[in-house]
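Duplicate of #3305? Posting structure anyway:
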């Protein structure tokens, strides 16, 4: 079964082998088939949506398009019914839509866009969700020395990653880079208000809000009684519980071809993969990944960066942000940062194809048969 995102009104299409039922208003009956009204007639009840099919392993799977990427939910139904599973999944997708409307810098009417438009103005009340994510963004920015900085967006807007795109002028980059600075996000915990201190500042939450939305969707599933599930959105994954007592396994995608580099067994953990191999720009014969270094205003030079970074953390919000920061740091410094923070684990694929694995993750990482016979990569300190 697939739930397809069709509109902001949360319209879904449920597909089964014998049925295709689209949501939306039913077609008007023809005059010949319209029954005569009666004085005591009750309004017709909308037909119940068919329950999604349950797969052989006891799970229900659904996917949609949100946040500019594919979002999927796979849950083990246990003692629940398939209809209850379908309702829980729809509620989780609706929560992601709600978070996107708050935090998308691409939507001019979002709360984040309003915050950006008010840069340099007075403190204004923020929703609890936006206040929380800005607080957490500042904590990650401080911990990473600015390798993650949500105020990068002032300079990030200058870059375009499509064929034929050219880099911004150096003086333009320098002008906008002066507006980058996470310390100038001012938040008042007593009132829940916030502002950007300087005119022209802009926040982009693309490297943390997707993880936050995944976490929120997982919370909705828990509230509906489904404690065993996976929520995945464009490489940001949160794993809750197990599949009938067996740990879920999350694969790490190969950047160069279909298939997985390895798999990570996980329970109640987030696994996020960040990489610049899908979007890039070529400048004077050099390729630059779409991930921007907020300290320089330039995208990452592919030759000096990892092909992909997979970060394991307690929640997808943190894993999303730290994966970006580790990618900006580069393989050696990034792995050293992970090893210095016990709450984080990581798998880095270097430009030469070497797999670097943090020491506490190495014993449980599942490698494909051809890779399992290779000696492990040395620790990077």
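Output from current build:
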């Amino acid at each position: 079964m697939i739930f397809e995102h069709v509109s902001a009104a949360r319209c879904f299409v449920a597909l089964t082998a014998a049925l295709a039922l689209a949501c939306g208003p039913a077609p008007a009956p023809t005059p010949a088939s319209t029954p005569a009204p009666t004085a005591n007639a009750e309004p017709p009840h909308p037909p119940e949506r068919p329950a999604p099919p349950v797969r052989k392993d006891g799970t229900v799977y659904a996917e949609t398009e949100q946040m500019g990427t594919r979002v999927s939910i796979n849950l083990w139904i246990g003692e629940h019914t398939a209809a209850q599973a379908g309702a829980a999944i729809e509620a989780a997708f609706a929560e992601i839509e709600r978070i996107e409307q708050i935090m998308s810098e691409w939507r001019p009417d979002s709360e984040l866009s309003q915050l950006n438009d008010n840069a340099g103005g007075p403190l204004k009340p923020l929703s609890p969700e936006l206040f929380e994510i800005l607080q957490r963004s500042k904590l990650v920015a401080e911990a990473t020395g600015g390798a993650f900085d949500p105020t990068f967006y002032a300079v990030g807007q200058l870059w375009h990653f499509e064929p034929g795109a050219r880099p911004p002028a150096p003086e333009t980059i320098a002008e906008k880079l002066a507006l980058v600075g996470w310390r100038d996000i001012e938040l008042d915990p007593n009132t829940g208000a916030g502002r950007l201190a300087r005119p022209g500042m802009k926040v982009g939450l693309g490297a943390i809000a997707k993880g936050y939305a995944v976490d929120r969707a997982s919370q909705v599933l828990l509230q509906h009684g489904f404690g065993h599930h996976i929520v995945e959105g464009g490489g940001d994954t949160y794993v809750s519980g197990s599949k009938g007592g067996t740990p879920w396994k999350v694969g790490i995608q190969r950047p160069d071809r279909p298939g997985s580099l390895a798999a990570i067994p996980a329970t109640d953990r987030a696994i996020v993969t960040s990489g610049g191999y899908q979007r890039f720009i070529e400048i004077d014969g050099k390729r630059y990944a779409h991930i921007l270094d907020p300290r320089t205003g330039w995208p990452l030079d592919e030759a000096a960066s990892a092909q992909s970074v997979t970060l394991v953390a307690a929640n997808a919000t943190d894993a999303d942000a730290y994966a970006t920061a580790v990618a900006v740091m580069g393989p050696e410094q990034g792995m050293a940062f992970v090893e210095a923070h016990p709450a984080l684990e990581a798998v880095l694929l270097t430009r030469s194809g070497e797999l670097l694995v943090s020491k506490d993750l190495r014993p449980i990482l599942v490698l494909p048969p051809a890779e399992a016979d290779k000696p492990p990569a040395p620790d990077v300190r």
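Confirmed duplicate; merging threads. Confidence is low (pLDDT under 50) at residues 1-39, 376-381. The chain is about 25% helix and 25% strand.
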